[in-house]
Amino acid sequence: MLPRLVIVGFGNVGQALVRGAIASGIAAPSEIGAIDSDSSKLSEAREIGLRVVDHRAIAEAEVVVLAVKPQRFAEAAASVGAVAADGPLVVSVMAGVRSDAIRSALGGAARVLRTMPNTPAAVRRGITAIASDAKVSEADFLRAEQLFTSVGSTVRVPESLFDAVTAVSGSGPAFLFRFLEAWTYAAEEIGLPPETARALARETLIGSAALLDETREEPEVLRAKVTSKGGTTAAGMLRLDDVGARAGGLDALMVESLKAARDRGAELGK
Description:
By secondary structure, the protein is an alpha/beta fold. The chain folds into two domains: 5-158, NAD(P)-binding Rossmann-like Domain (Rossmann fold, 3-Layer(aba) Sandwich); 172-268, ProC C-terminal domain-like fold. 51% of the residues lie in helices and 13% in strands. The protein contains eleven helices and eight strands. The protein has helices at residues 12-23, 39-47, 73-80, 99-105, 138-149, 162-170, 172-189, 194-215, 219-226, 232-245, 250-268; strands at residues 5-8, 32-35, 51-52, 63-66, 89-92, 112-116, 126-131, 152-156. Strands 3-2-1-4-5-6-7-8 form an eight-stranded mixed beta sheet, sandwiched between helices. α1 links the parallel β1 (5-8) and β2 (32-35). α10 crosses α11 (250-268). The longest helix is centred in the C-terminal third of the chain and has 22 residues, at 194-215. The model has no long low-confidence stretch (mean pLDDT 91).
C-alpha cells in the first residue's frame, strides 16, 4: 500500500505535521511516507512508524508536503519530479518561494498551495496561513486546512501578502522569545536571582497568553486592566514608551522589525 501523505523534509515542521495528522486521525503512521537526504531524520521517521519512500511514491499520494528550507528547494524539486494536474496536491511550507515557481519546477501542471505555519505547531497551537495564486479547488483548500488544523488554526490569505504573513506569524515566535530574554535579563538586573527571574518572566508570559486566549479580549483592554493611573505598571509603561521613542516609538520599532523580516522573505523568492 502506497502512502496517502508524503512529507519531503522531515525536520521540525514536517515532524509537527506528522504528529498532528496521526493524533487527529487524518492518517495512520503506515499511511505517511518520508523523504529526506539526512539518514538520521529518516531513522526518526521509522521510529514513529512512517514509511521511508522515494519519488515513486509521490504520484499515488493524495498530498505531498514540501517541508524543506527555501535554499534546498531545487534539490527537493528534483527528488519529487514532475507532478501531474490530477496527481497529489502539493503543499509548500517554504518561505519566499512562490507557488508559480514551485509549479514550474514540478513540471508546470501541479496543483500547488503555499502555507506558512509557525513553530507552536509542534504543540498543536500553531497558526497557518494558506494561499495560492492558482485555481485550486475548494476541496483542495479544505484538505490542506484539515491537515494544518491538526496542529492549530488556519487563515486564508492572498499570496501577495505572504511575505508579510511570514514576518508576523512565521518569525513572530522568535520576536516573543527575544522579548522574554530581555525581560529575564532585566529581572536579574533589578536584583532577582537568575532562577527566580526566569520563572517569573516565563510564567507571566505564558499566563498572560492564556488569559488573552480564554477571555478573547483585545490586548489593549487587558493592558488597561493592569495599568492603574499613577501605579507601578504605569511607571514602567511610561519608561518603555520613552525608551521606544528614541527609535520612533515602540510601535515604530516593531514595524521596522516586521518590515525587515518581510523584505527578506521577498529576497528569498527571487
